[in-house]
Predict the 3D structure of the following.
Amino acid sequence: MAKRAREDAANEERPKREERERRILDAAVELLQKWGYRKTTLEDIAREARVAKGTLYLSWPTRDKLFMAIIEREQTRLLREIVSRMEADPADLTLIGLVKHSIRATLQNPVTRALILQDAEFLGELIIREFNAASYQAQLDGYMALLQFLRENCLIRDDIELQEQALAVVSASWGVLLVNPLLPDNLRISDEQMISIVVTTLKRLLEPDIPPTEEQRRIGENAFRAYMNQALANPL
């Protein structure tokens, strides 16, 4: 009976704890946007979230662990948003569609935008470095396997080495985002202009000389669904 009572109490407390943690993370993101990493303290976050400072330590014993939790939550949200956008238009269940929606969703989320642009003022240099170290290898392995599958099924070109192709795709996809903030104001372009450049470049880089058949396209669509479902099942 006592064990059952404890379990019932824990089940009743779980929604309250999850709501409290959501409120804390939301408050932290808002303050990061307002003040940046260096000026945002746990005291500030607790005050904004309307909780005692000690409550923060129940889930995150350090500020860096709290900020890593923010990144992990926003990465999961990002993946769900990309899946939703791709499923809304099955014609975008392609590598180019994946890149297009990934860039757009990334830039529209302040946390993932800061992460991809290496904005240490927003997230902190240590947080960015730790996240990149933890996520890079897993991302690379899944990405290389996807490219190989697309090559084998004639959905993208296979006339260059896989590693060279992967580097070219990543550079074309994300390089313009990193270069754009460094340009003079009169040369800087909008997010949508960047996405347009990336899509045009990837079409020239990836599209095979012989268009894929409908059956091959269906195989590709299923592969992208599986790829995204796997990413959602194992968020970084």
The chain has two domains: 1-61, 73-233.
